[in-house]
Design goal:
- The complex is a heterodimer.
- In chain A, α1 packs parallel to α5.
- By secondary structure, chain A is an alpha/beta fold.
- The longest helix of chain A has 17 residues.
- Helices cover about 30% and strands about 20% of the residues of chain A.
- Chain A has 6 helices and 5 strands.
- Chain A has one domain: Thiolase/Chalcone synthase (Peroxisomal Thiolase, Chain A, domain 1), CATH 3.40.47.10.
- By secondary structure, chain B is an alpha/beta fold.
- In chain B, α1 packs across α14, α6 crosses α7 and α8 crosses α14.
- The chains are: A alpha/beta, B alpha/beta.
- At the A-B interface, α3, α4, α5, β3 and α6 of A face α4, α7, β6, α8 and α9 of B.
């Protein structure tokens, strides 16, 4: 993204330049961005009822909540607007914590905790965010080969350009693996310029102006 | 095969020129279609892993299934060969993969990491499973983020990158992990990439082989049928059963396919995606998201509800899903729903999770090609909450031109693909 908040080319970012894709899309603007953790946050994201054993879903929900509160105010959004907001969850590694907990139960010959059933797929936390905020556009969860930020941007661009959404909540999330790593999630709301100027502020967050 | 340019009011957005599929029904589209028309369920006792601690011990498995990376590579090879793609054309074709790595990837990563630490040589000490995984990922060693020993070496993205390199495709874009709408979402994105001019051709692959982890998760969630059958839209249905599926399709712009003289197997005329905004894992009881996805697909294709000839439903056989889906179809199609044949072929091949959208697309392509609508098997008695024109007992002969493939997933994700006859 360039400094005025627009995205130019709609090329898929696989980092190789040889993916056979092309195209110039309509520009998007990024109305807000938020992350977890932010300065002052502890090591763990706020608990998310019904989600256990893993920080993945709670940190996704925390970043989304912060972004949407800044961008649209308190939940929910108006139904006619919510139907045109898509949610895209981008994570290379996915929910490693839940996978670990499931593997541990299966390998030990124990019954799998029932709560892990629904949280074993990333859709579920998206369902939490979508139902709380009334976001009823397309739902996508992906693991990108190239840069996650580029891929989230490309999917947002594709959804808007193809007419499936006017706004896209893009959430990037990775869990820490190994010593010294830290889990983190970033949520950004992308809007079509055609969606109008009156329903959300332009983001002044450094995250938004640093996406070149 | 010749097309009729006046037949589609808005024209084809993408055409299918290559198709490969394997499931518990056998290998190839014909074996699949024969089974779903006969209505012969492919369920049997699971022997792939120990089910002694589970409530349910039945699934639909392919008896000679190779490890998933091998099956996916073979499906990609077959679909590209059927499409008649040259080496250069493959290099120009990006790959979208639908797959969810799950706990097995965590185990493989752990084993590989331990082996690296102990022996300084990955191949010296890794287990058989890790060897298979590393072999798939090996061509992508130049990408540091997916290299063996890196945290993401066993990620969903790494699988896609390895497959693309192994099969000579022009680079993997991403892996869809959107649960049971992964494959249908990938097809919608591929069609959108073609429709918006991003690509002339996109290859989509999907795979799920019944495994101990997801079997345990679904068993713990009490989602599995307790009577050994999936009975979609039927009174007395008790849940779903898991099934194997590996599939790949080649999608092209109509112009690119025409220029190559490629045979068209079917047309992706419309797609729609919508969320329920209702619950973490339960569908909207009135099928709100299903209805909007269906209407979006019909609108994009310029096809009316009255023109729709067949619906291949998500139809998992769970009480919540089937009543919500039936309500959503009624909401979207109006009175025409009473004259629209519907079946869920999960009653035969099982619920294949991330691969569902591609396996069921294969069923729809075959139904349109052969003019025969597959059976909604396992039906016991009508459920007033699921008033649909179900294809029961025998396959229905039909000069079908337009069909919908529906899928839904946790998080309230719904997809509809509107497919046209060749």
């Amino acid at each position: 993204m360039n400094r005025n908040g627009t995205v130019g080319k709609g090329n898929v970012g696989n980092g190789t330049g040889g993916d056979g894709t092309r195209g110039d899309g309509a520009a998007l603007r990024w109305t807000c961005s938020a992350r977890w953790p932010e300065p002052g946050d502890g090591d763990q994201p706020p608990p998310l009822p019904g989600f256990v054993e893993s920080t993945f879903s709670p940190m996704v929900a925390a970043a989304a909540e912060r972004c949407l509160r800044q961008a649209v105010g308190p939940p929910p959004v108006a139904p006619e607007r919510g139907e045109r907001i898509a949610v895209v969850l981008v994570s290379v590694g996915g929910d490693v914590g839940t996978a670990d907990a499931t593997a541990a139960a299966v390998d030990a010959g124990r019954s799998v905790p029932p709560l892990l059933f629904f949280q074993s797929v990333p859709n579920s936390v998206v369902g939490h965010v979508a139902s709380r905020w009334g976001l009823a556009g397309p739902v996508l969860c992906v693991s990108p080969v190239g840069d996650p930020q580029d891929d989230g941007r490309e999917l947002a661009q594709l959804l808007v350009e193809d007419g499936e959404a006017d706004e896209v909540l893009v959430i990037l999330a990775e869990q820490a693996r190994g010593p010294g790593g830290r889990s983190h999630a970033t949520a950004v709301l992308a809007r079509s310029w055609d969606a109008g100027e009156d329903s959300g502020p332009q983001c002044s967050n450094h995250e938004c102006s640093n996406h070149e | 095969m010749a097309s009729d340019p006046g037949r589609h009011r808005r024209g084809s957005s993408a055409v299918v020129t290559g198709l490969a599929v394997a499931s518990a029904c056998g290998r190839g589209p014909d074996a699949l279609f024969d089974s779903v028309c006969a209505g012969t369920p492919a369920f049997g006792p699971v022997t792939r892993f120990d089910t002694a601690a589970r409530r349910v011990r039945v699934a639909a498995t392919l008896h000679d299934a190779a490890p998933l990376p091998e099956e996916l590579a073979e499906a990609l090879h077959q679909s590209c060969t059927q499409a008649g793609l040259t080496v250069d054309q493959r290099k120009d074709s990006p790959l979208l993969l639908a797959w969810h790595p799950g706990p097995d990837a965590v185990r493989a990563a752990r084993r590989a990491s331990e082996a690296v630490k102990e022996a300084a040589s990955v191949t010296a000490a890794v287990t058989e499973a890790a060897v298979a995984a590393v072999a798939v990922h090996a061509p992508k060693l130049s990408a540091a983020t997916h290299a063996p020993g890196s945290p993401d070496a066993h990620s969903a993205a790494a699988m896609a990158a390895g497959l693309a390199a192994r099969c000579g495709l022009g680079g993997a874009v991403r892996t869809y992990t959107t649960a049971c709408v992964s494959a249908s979402t990938a097809v919608a994105d591929a069609a959108a990439m073609i429709a918006t001019g991003r690509a002339d051709r996109v290859v989509v692959a999907a795979g799920y082989l019944v495994d101990q982890d997801y079997f345990g998760l679904f068993d713990a969630g009490r989602a599995l049928a307790t009577d050994g059958r999936i009975r979609p839209f039927s009174r007395g249905r008790t849940g779903l059963l898991l099934g194997d599926a590996v599939a790949a399709v080649v999608l092209e712009s109509p112009g690119a396919a025409r220029a190559r003289g490629a045979e068209v197997l079917g047309r992706v005329l419309g797609w729609g995606r919508a969320g329920d905004a209702h619950h973490v894992c339960r569908p909207h009881p009135e099928g709100a998201g299903v209805a909007r996805a269906v209407r979006a697909a019909l609108d994009r294709a310029g096809v009316s509800a009255e023109e729709l000839d067949y619906v291949n439903a998500h139809g998992t056989g769970t009480p919540f899903n089937d009543s919500a889906e039936a309500a959503g179809l009624r909401r979207a199609l109006g009175p025409a729903v009473d004259r629209t044949p519907v079946s869920s072929t999960k009653s035969v091949h099982g619920h294949t999770l991330e691969a569902s959208g591609l396996l069921e697309l294969a069923v729809v392509l075959q139904a349109l090609r052969h003019g025969r609508l597959p059976v909604n098997a396992g039906f016991l008695d009508a459920d007033p909450e699921c008033r649909l024109d179900l294809v029961l007992g025998e396959p229905r002969e039909s000069r079908a031109r337009y069909a919908l493939s529906l899928n839904a997933a946790f998080g309230g994700a719904n997809t509809a693909l509107l497919i046209g006859a060749p």
